[in-house]
Structure to design on (962 residues):
């Protein structure tokens, strides 16, 4: 437990990806099985056991510490696990090290006990562990058993670290991952070169996704031969993989994976039941109503929900628009060229008898100019009422096999032009890591009519990228020289009629927001140009955003109950 | 008849005042006669008439504010009885920083001990705390919550050395207060056998030289030259806390940001400051030592000057000890002021940023002005934080 605790402690403070990776590699290399496997499971969210509720932990502390002092401390620290770890008293009369102290539990003991322990036994067991551990150990234990590690390590990063022990890419681990179970002895044996890769016994494994590069129109397009490519719509949904197959006992296994290999089947039972086939489909998860694709705003209602209610299923029916076939009845199709896979896909989807899965159509085009026209106006080439849910076109080289990762060349995404507004910088905040001494996060606003009829700027978003280091230095200097108020790390800068700095902001869409005073929030806002030249009076008005919002909300918008 | 404690020591806008002795203790504004517990800028200010303090504290004040920091000065020998009008005072070691003392004030059988700032943990750079039995014990409560339990400073320094071994190509930048903490960290590093030169931000140099003259083993130190920063991979650099997030620190090769402070015990606080390697090294008492010390003095009454007073006052009451918070303003400024969340702290933060701004017009890697506040004349040469605090003291007095 101690090694794991110290790893988490270091990771929690480490902002750099590469340094995190090094800490993880160091840990996986030096920690024995099965502890390192359980640590990997904890960091990839693959553990399931009886979690301790905050009330239980509070009760344990208050039995040992004056509740007034605990409350004052908790208010100060602001985190239950950390307050408890810090305040937990040493046991009275506990002798020095090496004398009959309660043994420090290993991570494996903790995980294995929690998997089997009864509810009534949990408090006493937890208290005994807290007695045995030091502060860092207590903190890590409490983070672990409340299910909130939050040390800034993604499942992907943890797998990358494990893979690198054997000189593999993370995708190699993803390939075998879903057939494995904690504490993964066969995985470590393989990356350490002691055995071959683990046999996947999973009948519906995840296959690492193939990703595309954005195309630079001027730079790339002219060099590419239009005839070598096939085009299709780029849907504004979430990328998923539907995998199905029969397990050893002949039962159908139905899995939905996210782009990163996360199993999200539980969130989409309506779609999972459509996986009656054996194979793996790559496609876009969308919400369809009356055969019409809904905007991403609508899809968001289905995402990140803890429970899936019948009402949610009814009002937000999930659907997959398939664009690739990776496996069929035990045959791996990924080495085949795209054109062959596409033909197999069309046959495969045609043979499915389920309305929730359909085919993403190809977009025919003669040359790049024709495709550009289709991209600018999808409705003109048959996208019909679905045009609003299209965010550009995908180009796929017809001879390309399906390669995991982001190989450069075979697949390109050619996104629709982003929306743009001219906004006025209002606040600036210091950045983090490399940028920690620069004012690099900018809150910007647009004009609207105030209740009293006057014109005012209202904040509509925050952007922290889109500029070069050189531009950042200039923006930072601008902020420092035009500060009007200071709130800790935040500065208010000069803004208004005749004063202030205009930033051209590019963004992908607008959502309604209850958190912003303006009532709207942008998707992926970034600074596209710094308009040193532009007077603030010429910045955009809130109505410009509201028009975009209205387009994306044709049926329902986030935050509002659906009553009809 | 013994006087009431409140007749012996009372709170004025300048700070604690002893009417029968006609002197202030650690006053925050200029007064005719001041007794100073230790050299941190929030306790030791320039511009008083007469100053009574330990010889080390007087020398620290002279280095910080110039020789003319007051009109007359008197050295207080530890344990020596000094008569001031109707009262006697005695200085006892407080274990906080070099020269730090508690001041026992006594008249007619009533003894009040003002401990200034103190700690019980081992510190190779100053004399250990001495328990002085008293009727009223005046204590700070900087870390007055039971979540503050400081680990062994030695182990924290070992963690720093471990990190240097793990990242041998990166510079380890350690934020540490210029008086006391920095030298303690250096002395601890030497005790652990670290013999490489330690690189110092300019603001650390004079006080470190003073410690060296006082016989503290800080080993070889080298002042950081701006142009040399890219070459200091694998080195340990000490700088004031304000500099760890400054442009100044960005020119080192892939720096690891460390901060030696009791505040580092709370992870969220460390992360807010962008600290990657928090080192819990405090020159104040942790919760257990605050409680232990109150009991050790046998005091029937405790006055709490500054910090997390609510919890400590509550604890005293549960122990049958009368206790009250003094709500004193103007302290907790330099030693280990809470790093965020206070308006006045932000003010001084901004002061520093302004200095940083001035640098923006110069070549980017110019030394921040933080490097200079120790030099110059009294009154004008106080550190920026002291200036900010003075403004506030005026505001609160008004």
């Amino acid at each position: 437990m101690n090694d794991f605790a110290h790893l988490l402690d270091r990771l929690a403070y480490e902002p750099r990806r590469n340094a995190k990776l090094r800490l993880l590699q160091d840990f996986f290399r030096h920690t024995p099985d099965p502890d390192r496997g359980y640590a990997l499971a904890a960091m990839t969210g693959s553990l399931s056991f009886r979690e301790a509720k905050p009330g239980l932990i509070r009760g344990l502390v208050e039995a040992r510490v004056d509740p007034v002092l605990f409350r004052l401390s908790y208010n100060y620290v602001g985190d239950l696990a950390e307050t408890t770890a810090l305040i937990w008293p040493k046991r009275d009369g506990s002798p020095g090290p090496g004398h009959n102290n309660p043994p420090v539990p290993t991570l494996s003991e903790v995980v294995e006990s929690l998997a089997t322990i009864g509810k009534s036994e949990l408090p006493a067991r937890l208290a005994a562990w807290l007695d045995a551990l030091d502060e860092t150990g207590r903190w890590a234990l409490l983070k672990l058993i409340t299910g909130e590690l939050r040390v800034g390590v993604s499942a992907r990063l943890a797998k990358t670290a494990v893979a690198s022990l054997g000189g593999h890419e993370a995708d190699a681990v993803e390939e075998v991952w879903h057939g494995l179970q904690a504490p993964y002895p066969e995985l470590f044996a393989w990356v350490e070169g002691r055995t071959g890769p683990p046999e996947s016994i999973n009948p519906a494994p995840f296959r690492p996704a193939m990703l595309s590069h954005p195309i630079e129109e001027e730079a790339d397009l002219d060099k590419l031969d239009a005839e070598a490519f096939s085009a299709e719509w780029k849907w504004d949904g979430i990328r998923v993989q539907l995998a199905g197959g029969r397990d050893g006992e002949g039962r159908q296994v139905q899995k939905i994976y996210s782009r990163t290999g996360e199993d999200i089947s539980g969130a989409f039972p309506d779609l999972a039941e459509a996986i009656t086939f054996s194979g793996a489909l790559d496609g876009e998860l969308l919400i369809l109503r009356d055969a019409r694709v809904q905007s991403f705003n609508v899809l968001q209602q289905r995402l990140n929900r803890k429970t899936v209610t019948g009402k949610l299923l009814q009002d937000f029916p999930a659907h997959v628009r398939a664009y690739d076939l990776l496996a069929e009845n035990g045959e791996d199709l990924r080495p085949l060229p795209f054109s062959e896979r596409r033909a197999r896909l069309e046959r495969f989807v045609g043979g499915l008898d389920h309305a929730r899965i359909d085919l993403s159509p190809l977009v025919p085009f003669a040359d790049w100019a024709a495709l550009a026209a289709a991209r600018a106006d999808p409705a003109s080439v048959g996208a019909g009422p679905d045009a609003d849910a299209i965010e550009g076109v995908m180009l796929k080289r017809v001879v390309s096999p399906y390669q995991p990762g982001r190989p450069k060349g075979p697949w390109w995404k050619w996104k629709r032009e982003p929306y743009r507004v001219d906004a006025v910088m209002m606040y600036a905040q210091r950045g983090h890591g490399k940028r920690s001494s620069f004012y690099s996060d900018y809150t910007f606003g647009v004009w609207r009519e105030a209740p009293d009829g006057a014109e005012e700027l209202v904040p509509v978003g925050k952007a922290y990228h889109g500029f070069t280091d050189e531009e950042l230095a200039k923006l930072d200097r601008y902020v420092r020289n035009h500060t009007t108020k200071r709130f800790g790390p935040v500065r208010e800068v000069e803004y208004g009629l005749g004063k202030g700095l205009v930033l051209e902001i590019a963004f992908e869409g607008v959502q309604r927001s209850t958190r912003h005073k303006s009532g709207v929030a942008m998707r992926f806002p970034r600074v596209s140009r710094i308009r040193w030249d532009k007077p603030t009076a010429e910045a955009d008005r809130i109505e410009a955003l509201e028009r975009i919002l209205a387009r994306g909300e044709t049926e329902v918008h986030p935050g509002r109950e659906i009553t009809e | 008849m013994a006087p009431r404690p409140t007749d012996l020591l009372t709170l004025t806008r300048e700070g604690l005042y002893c009417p029968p002795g006609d002197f202030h203790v650690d006053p925050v504004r200029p007064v005719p006669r001041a007794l100073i517990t230790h050299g941190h800028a929030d306790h030791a200010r320039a511009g008083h008439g007469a100053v009574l303090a330990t010889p080390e504290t007087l020398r620290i004040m002279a280095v910080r504010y110039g020789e003319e920091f007051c009109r007359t000065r008197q050295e207080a020998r530890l344990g020596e009885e000094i008569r001031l009008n109707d009262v006697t005072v005695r200085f006892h070691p407080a274990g906080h920083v070099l020269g730090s003392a508690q001041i026992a004030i006594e008249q007619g059988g009533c003894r009040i001990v003002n401990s200034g700032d103190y700690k019980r943990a081992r510190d190779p750079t100053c004399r250990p705390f001495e328990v002085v039995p008293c009727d009223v014990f005046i204590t700070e409560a900087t870390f007055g919550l039971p979540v503050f339990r400081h680990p062994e400073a030695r182990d924290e320094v070992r963690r720093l050395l471990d990190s240097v071994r793990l990242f041998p190509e990166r510079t380890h930048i350690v934020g540490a207060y210029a008086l006391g903490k920095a030298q303690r960290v250096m002395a601890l590093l030497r005790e652990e056998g670290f013999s490489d030169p330690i690189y110092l931000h300019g603001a650390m140099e004079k006080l470190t030289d003073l410690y060296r003259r006082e016989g503290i083993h800080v080993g070889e130190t080298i002042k950081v030259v701006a142009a040399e920063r890219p070459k200091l991979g694998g080195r340990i650099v000490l700088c004031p806390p304000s500099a760890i997030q400054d442009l100044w620190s960005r020119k080192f090769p892939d720096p690891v940001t460390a901060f030696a402070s009791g505040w580092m015990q709370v992870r969220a606080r460390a992360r807010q400051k962008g600290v990657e390697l928090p080192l819990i090294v405090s020159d104040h008492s942790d919760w257990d030592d605050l409680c232990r010390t109150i009991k050790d003095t046998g005091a029937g009454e405790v006055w709490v000057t500054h910090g997390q007073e609510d919890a400590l006052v509550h604890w005293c009451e549960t122990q049958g000890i009368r206790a009250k918070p003094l709500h004193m303003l103007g302290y907790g400024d330099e030693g280990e002021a809470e790093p965020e969340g206070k308006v006045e702290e932000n003010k001084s933060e901004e002061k520093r940023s302004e200095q940083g701004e001035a640098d923006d017009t110069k070549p980017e890697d110019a030394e921040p002005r933080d490097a200079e506040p120790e030099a110059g004349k009294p009154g004008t040469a106080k550190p920026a934080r002291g200036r900010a605090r003075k403004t506030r003291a005026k505001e609160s007095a008004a």
In short: Chain A touches chain B at residues 12-15, 19, 26, 65-66, 68-70, 72-73, 76-79, 82-83, 86-87, 135, 139, 430, 432-434, 436-437, 473, 476-477, 480-481, 486-488 (CB under 8 Å). Confidence is low (pLDDT under 50) at residues 94-98, 554-564 of chain A. Residues 419-552 of chain A form a domain with the OB fold (Dihydrolipoamide Acetyltransferase, E2P) fold (CATH 2.40.50.140). Chain A has three domains: 2-145, 213-415, 419-552.
